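Q: Convert this sequence to structure tokens.
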Amino acid sequence: MLNRWAEPLWRRKFAAPYVHIVFGARQTGKSTLIQGLLPSHAVHLDLSAPKIRARFLNNPDDLIRLCRALPQRAGGSWVFVDEAQSVPALFDAVQHLYDGDKKRWRFILCGSSARKLRKTGANLLPGRSFLHRLFPLTMVERPTDEVPTRFDAPPVLSFAWPHAQGHPKRFAKADLATRLAYGELPGVVTAGDTVRVEMLVAYAQLHLEEEIRREAIIKDWPAFVRFLRFAAVESGQMLNYHNISKEVGLSVPTIKSHYQLLEDMFLGFRLPAYSGSARKNLLSTDRFLFFDLGIRHAAAGLRPSPDIVMANPGPIFEQWVGLELWKRLQYLGAGTLHYLRTYDGSEVDFIIQSQSGLVPVEVKWTEHPSLSDARHLLAFLAENPKRAHHGYIICRCPHPLRLHDKVTALPWFCL
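A:
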């Protein structure tokens, strides 16, 4: 099995006698990774199967009876419930069993949506559970043929294999155009070139429709489809609910609810505006990014390909950098990602905020970055001298370039 960055951390955390809740979008590899970490005797209940889901919807106590019938084992009997959000009542059954005997059973509850759990106020087992997230592949998991060059500057965001990983078996290498066109979902990455497009289109047309119909009461399905396509086309841009409302013919509250649904299903996330600047003319509107570029293209009604990307590569490249930074921060749990834009047009594409300070990042499609590309970074660094010490331009230059004492241009493969 190909290795994931989270694997050694999950292996260590799964050893703790708690209930483990795993969230992530469909096709990020949750079930594959979990099954690879569990012993062969583990019980796997896949609630995506209609017959199994119906059984536990009608009788959630069946889980209690099933678990009590399992033989007692040293280290506990493992029970893995996939798509657990489909039957929120199972969380109560798990709590009943866990509180009765914390060592006899070891539970992993996996889900691709938090909406139903949030809407029903489901019991997420506070004080009894660990929460884990899995995302599409990072650059650490899927390297490139390019050789990263050492550079004399603090790292943009340190992210390496956990030491316990040893010599990981990584996913196949990919160039930038392939990443921008097809995204980073493990199943798509490992598929042949001829089927990648069909997999992404099927995900957008079948999986999303199936999941959304199951998770939400959508009164006007054609209008939702128009919203989904528009949201994908506008991915990476600032949210303007009134304009979107006019475009798709839905009310502003409904548009906001649909975006929340995408977040609850881990299909996208909001990128908040940075609010720590002394400037008075800051924009405070969130941006919204789809969780994977391949899915973004397919949801926008496009057939993913490098040609589609190269028609306007700059915005797609910017989203790819943002997604890479966001995934790393989510895994590390050591900071947050923001952007900055003012009414007069000054902007910084991404700002990494952590306890150690601020790191501003600009993204340029150019192969020849210049000092003029760094003007917004230098303005931000000048405004935040105590917290921000170095800025970066991520671009397509062949090797790192020191544009200024406080600004380094980095090739994308050195990120």
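The mean pLDDT is 90.
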